[in-house]
Each structure stands twice: as structure tokens, then as C-alpha cells.
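Q: What residues go here?
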């Protein structure tokens, strides 16, 4: 196949744009999420970034989607469901974004990469699974299932390991597509977790944090920016208290200090801030930003959101 002559093969500024799975859940979700509106803002962000001269790599969560599929069939392996949701969500994002790009007469087109991520089989996460997945379980299921199960705020749920990502197996493919100026959709749900077993790779029942993988992709691509698009407008300390403070800029040193003080819980802001710190440390000059959907360009200008900097 001949390359598209529209593509110049000249890599400009690269941004990894990470969005949560709630932005892509069904419109009748019972969590109050206005998914269609959020998705429209995400699409607006991507187009704005392209028009501002950025090349965009999109990563995404899959929590609501995996939970729904597990409620329908809890016997299918976790890595298979992560792969399935990568395809489903990637298709939805791709067909929506391609339609917008074509309508606007832009040359870019999307490419969806089924992304496998190697994890360490000795990662402590496998010894102490903590990541809730799937629906709540009744007493019969709790007794009959050979799963790790924990009591959560909504009831008993299956928990799986959440190991740290070691290596993006498909990073060379992603990099090549970026060079061809494609809008690459990859790393869905934190990637398909695999481990090395002798000469072969094998999927494992785990969920890798999406933001950690997004940071690793940004590092490997030597990206110029990492944008974590989430429900809050900025990073706050003393969240929910009278002295809550919203930060527009945080130094790496202060971010690490706040992490150690427990300002950013592991179940919410912790992985996002940790991922932003990792990206800044490993890529000189990278802009590491958190903002709400629809505000990517303004956040890059420092007008909204939070930037973590050296």
C-alpha cells in the first residue's frame, strides 16, 4: 500500500491525551454522567489540538464498559475483555473523529492500535489484588466463585491486580503511525496485561492504570505534552475541606510532598498525579497537565487546569 501523499512524515509537537472511561459510557448510565456532552468536548479538544499544530495520541479508560461486559459474562478472561473494550471504544472514537475531520477537510485520519502492555509477574499487585472490577456479588456468588473478593462501598466485588506497566509491546507501531501523522487511539483501559512465560507472552487477570500507561507512552514517544482529561478542573489540596486550594502550577517537588502527605488518594487523584510526575521527570520540557474536557488548549496556555513542572 502506498503512503497517503497528504501526510508529510514530519513529526511536529506530540501530545498524549488521556480520557476516562466515564466519558464514553452509555447515555443511560446511572452515575449521572452526561456522556454525549463530555464526548463532544473531547472531540472538540482533539480537533482544537490538531488545528493548533499538535499531533494527537489518544488513550482512554474502560472501567464502565468492562464492568458491563463482566456482568454479562464473568467467566471470560480479564485480558480478553480489556482487548474487547479496546476494539469497541476505539471504533466509536475513530468513526466519530474521522467523520469530524472529513467534514472539516482536515488531512488526518485515525488509527486504532490493540495495545499490549507487559507487566512483572512478581509485581506486589498480584499478591494483594485491590482493583474492583465487575458488578456487585450476592452471597451465593461470593461463596461459589474462585476469585479474590473484597467488600467495597457498594457491596462485595471481585478485585484483581493492578500492576505497574513495564513495556508497551506495540510502541514501535504507535510511533510509526505518529510519524505518518495519524491520530492514534491506543492504550485503552491501561492496555492488555501480559507477562513473559519462556518464549511466549500470556494474558493475565489484571487491570493496569490508564494514566500510568499514558505517561509511559508519552515517555517512549518523547512527547511534548501529556494531558489528563478528567471530571475536575484542577488538582486541589485539602480537597473537600474549608481550606481547599486549587493549584494552577505545582512543582514536582511539591507534588511529591503532597503525595507523601496523602493529599492524593490512590483510588482517585493519586495515579493521575503520579503519572504526571513520571512524565515530567523523564521527558525534559514536557508539559504535564490535568484539566476537564473541552479545555485542552486553554490548559496548554496556562489559563485553566493544573500544570506540574520541574
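A:
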Amino acid at each position: 500500500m502506498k503512503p497517503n501523499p497528504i501526510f508529510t512524515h514530519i513529526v511536529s509537537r506530540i501530545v498524549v491525551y488521556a480520557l476516562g472511561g466515564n466519558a464514553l459510557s452509555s447515555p443511560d448510565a446511572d452515575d449521572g454522567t452526561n456522556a454525549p456532552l463530555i464526548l463532544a468536548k473531547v472531540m472538540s479538544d482533539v480537533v482544537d489540538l490538531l488545528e493548533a499544530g499538535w499531533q494527537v495520541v489518544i488513550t482512554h479508560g474502560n472501567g464502565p464498559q468492562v464492568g458491563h461486559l463482566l456482568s454479562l459474562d464473568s467467566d471470560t478472561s480479564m485480558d480478553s475483555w480489556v482487548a474487547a473494550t479496546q476494539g469497541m471504544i476505539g471504533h466509536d472514537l475513530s468513526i466519530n473523529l474521522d467523520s469530524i475531520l472529513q467534514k472539516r477537510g482536515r488531512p488526518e485520519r485515525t488509527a486504532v492500535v490493540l495495545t499490549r502492555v507487559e507487566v512483572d509477574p512478581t509485581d506486589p499487585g498480584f499478591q494483594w489484588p485491590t482493583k474492583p472490577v465487575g458488578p456487585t456479588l450476592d452471597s451465593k456468588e461470593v461463596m461459589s466463585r474462585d476469585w479474590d473478593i473484597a467488600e467495597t462501598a457498594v457491596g462485595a466485588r471481585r478485585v484483581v491486580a493492578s500492576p505497574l506497566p513495564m513495556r508497551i509491546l506495540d510502541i514501535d507501531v504507535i510511533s510509526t503511525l505518529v510519524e505518518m501523522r495519524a491520530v492514534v487511539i491506543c492504550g485503552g483501559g491501561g492496555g492488555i496485561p501480559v507477562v513473559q512465560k519462556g518464549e511466549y507472552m500470556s494474558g493475565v487477570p489484571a487491570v493496569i492504570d490508564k494514566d500510568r500507561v499514558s505517561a509511559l507512552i508519552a515517555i517512549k514517544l518523547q512527547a511534548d505534552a501529556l494531558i489528563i482529561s478528567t471530571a475536575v478542573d484542577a488538582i486541589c489540596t485539602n480537597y473537600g475541606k474549608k481550606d481547599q486550594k486549587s493549584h494552577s502550577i505545582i512543582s514536582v517537588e511539591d507534588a511529591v510532598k503532597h503525595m507523601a502527605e496523602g493529599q492524593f488518594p490512590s483510588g482517585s487523584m493519586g495515579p493521575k498525579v503520579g503519572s504526571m510526575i513520571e512524565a515530567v521527570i523523564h521527558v525534559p520540557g514536557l508539559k504535564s497537565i490535568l484539566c476537564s474536557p473541552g479545555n485542552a488548549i486553554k490548559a496548554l496556555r496556562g489559563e485553566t487546569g493544573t500544570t506540574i513542572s520541574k
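A: Context that may help when evaluating the design: Residues 13-119+170-309 form a domain with the Carbamate kinase fold (CATH 3.40.1160.10). Residues 1-9, 26-32 have pLDDT under 50 and may be disordered.
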